[in-house]
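Working notes for the structural subgroup meeting. M.R. asked for a predicted model of this chain before we commit to crystallization trials. I am recording the input and output together here so anyone reviewing the notebook later can reproduce the run.

Input as submitted:
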Amino acid sequence: MSQDALQLQLQQLQQLEREIVECRRCPRLVAWRELVAREKRAAFADQEYWGRPIPGFGDPAARVMILGLAPAAHGANRTGRVFTGDRSGDFLFAALHRTGFANQPVSLHAGDGLELREAWITAAVRCAPPANKPTPLERDTCLPYARRELELLPGVDVIVCLGAFAWDAALRLLAARGVAVPRPRPRFGHAVELELPGAPLLLGCFHPSQQNTFTGKLTPAMIDAALLRARALAGLSPPA
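Returned structure, recorded in token form:
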């Protein structure tokens, strides 16, 4: 990519980020995220919550996109960065570090020095939803942001879908781009791969929620294997 093209890409990503952060399209989600930011959790009572939608972040030259469900109420909704500041993020970023995608294993806040290499992390829904369950309308209202992100990240060859919600969202955003998605739609599963003509390959991975990691449904070895498989599918060399 030429220097001029790179500069334009960065400007477009920054513009998209501004649009996401200012979004107020879903009244239920706006009310909830702002209520949580005002009331706070006792452990974070001395902190100022972000309380706004969460943009994606990472390497503009990413070959792998990691797609989650939505921000956690006291995680990204507090810190302002997706997967940062909660147990799911602790599990994910440790794995990203082990597999060569992150420069450090811990992500505590947006200014902690974390950098991603050849990866971009985002979510299907950008606001923390009540009970962690967005409605179909909220999903569909928010999904164009992920679609535009993908269009601005032309190097992405693989989308790692963290959970069934992200898998379904990825199929929907590919369909919105004109990709022929089979019907019935292929089902989500851990380590399931789906290759469709003219689209990044989809790779399923159980979501790193405490429900999955505490019960052993998703282990460090399992998520490492999924991320290493994503590297291989994207043509990236193994981590040093």
